[in-house]
Amino acid sequence: MNDEVTFTTMMLPRRQLIAGTFAAGAVGIGLTAAPAWAQTPGMLEGKVAIVTGGTSGIGAITAGALARAGAKVAFNGRRGALGREVEGRLRAAGGDVVYIRSDVRNASQVERFVAETIERYGRLDIAFNNAGIDLPPASISDTDIAGFDDQIATNLRGVFLSMKYELPHLVQSGGAMINTASIGGRHAFPNIVAYGASKAAVIHMTRAAAQEYGQHVRINAIAPGPIETPMLDRVRRDWKVTTEQLVAPYPMRRVGTPEEVASVVLFLASDASSYLSGHVIGIDGGDLA
Questions:
Q1: How far apart are alpha carbons 66 and 205 in whole angstroms?
Q2: Is 123:173 a contact under the CB 8 Å cutoff?
Q3: Of 223, 222, 242, 217, whose CA–CA distance to 232 is shortest?
Q4: What torsion, rounded to 10 degrees, do the Cα atoms 9, 14, 17, 19 define?
């Protein structure tokens, strides 16, 4: 990373300031209560959901919200100890949840993850393809090649592989798919070329899949803005910005919460969004305004 890349020296304009903050897969955040409406008994009763990148952050919170809404949930992630901890906490809260350790970069592991979910629960109704990573900001010429490849493999290939193996089952159930993109995929930002490109590609794949499978599966994406996760902590550190500086460009003047993201995912997974497909829903505090 170029040491000159700081908030003060670059005098980042509006969209540069908020670059790099927006992804799933954040680590280390605890599980908290789902939004009140998402706790409606039976909202997703009888449904089976998959969550990728569900060991922490947005993924873990959403896995809990889906379970509390009545869905049976299988989630994956690379970190076995953390995955088993989340699984235990959700089961203790009454959720029918299973952690299946797998890496979304690996085709055979993704195929196995989906197959084990079907073997355990018999069907698939909801897929939340959420796994993703970020790296410290750097100019294109300073971007680490291995880091670039890992972001593309996780954020883009991982979503593609998940879609590839989930869609045949979602066609059978007439289900719903939600992919995690980012505000960083809707706007071009400097110094996060791999992250932005991967998330823009997720948006494209979402729209293409919505056209291909529109008669059978509702397929949408979410584009979170700054969400209070450890990923946001890294952004504060790497970009040397305060929360106040970070949220200044947003009409709502605050960061979002993983629970607020989960509430949108539940809406898109439920019959409440039955005529909505091919969209990218910004969860961004009014950024597009």
A1: 24
A2: yes
A3: 242
A4: -140
Residue 231 tokens read as 């990923």
At 220-245, the pLDDT tens digits run 999 999 999 878 888 888 888 898 98
Return the closest-CA partner of residue 12 out of 191, 254, 251: 191
CA distance 5 to 257: 27
Contact 152, 192 (CB under 8 A): no
State yes or no: pLDDT of 32 exceeds 50.
Answer: no
**Helical pair 258-269 and 57-68, crossing angle rounded to 10 deg:** 50
Query: Taking the CB of residue 215, how many other CB atoms lie within 10 A of it?
Result: 7
- The half-sphere exposure of 66 on its side-chain side, counting CA atoms within 13 A, is 31
pLDDT digit string, tens, across residues 250-270: 899 999 999 999 999 999 999
Strand 176-180 relative to strand 218-224, pairing: parallel
Gyration radius from the chain CA atoms: 18
Q: What are phi and psi of 251, to 5 degrees?
A: -55, -35
Please list the active-site residues.
195
* Model confidence pTM above 0.70: yes
Beta-strand ranges (E) seen in the chain are 48-51, 72-75, 97-99, 126-129, 176-180, 218-224, 280-283
Over residues 64-97, the pLDDT tens digits come to 999 999 999 999 999 999 999 999 999 999 999 9
The Cα–Cα gap between 179 and 259 comes to: 16
Return phi, psi of residue 182, to 5°. -175, 155
